[in-house]
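Morning!

This is the sequence you dropped in the shared folder:
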Amino acid sequence: MSAKRRQASKQGRHTSRLRPMLWLMLIVLAALTYFAGGFLRFASDVANLSAPQSIANVDGIVVLTGGEARLQQAVNLLRQGTDVSPGKRLLISGVNRGTSLATLAKITGGDRALFECCVDLDYAALDTIGNAKMTVEWAREHHMARIALVTSDYHIPRALVELSAVPDAPEIVPYPVSPQKLWRADGLPTRLGLRLLVQEYAKVLAAKARFATGFDIIERLGQRAGS
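The structure's back. Tokens below.
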């Protein structure tokens, strides 16, 4: 074989090895671009969330635990609502099993009688998936067609995704609570807020992928760890 042919053959093998790497790089770049663009839309949507002026037309209120500000806001809404509609109730979902109604009433400065008459505690939910299931069960039990959902603003999108996947879910009125430590005065997220937004966006994508494919990677990893 001549030197030219050997050189051409060597170049051909080199090109054939580079081609899959180039395709892989293009796929990774496209995935990163998609993630970045989706994240910017997600962050913008969260930043533009605002609480409704009134929730007088809802049948009940649900608050997902995870922050004292959420709980305080939900109790305030319940107190206002029961003045108008005595039958209105509040579900606190994802409560630690060692926490009682009396403790929560003390933490929020609420009326103990208000808690005893109109507050239900959900000890079963361990995550947002559980929150969604228990919320729908509670709404069905109390014949509620429309409920207000109180949680942190960055958590609203994933909570809505999980609730939409539960059969017979009631109509949801989002009531976002914005943690001050997550947002700067100019409306941009703090370093902590940015980290939480990225984590939450990844969880939203994982939830949507789970519904689209029926494959729950978190559950599978948990099963492997347990075995």
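Headline: The longest helix spans residues 3-47.

More detail when I'm at my desk.
O.
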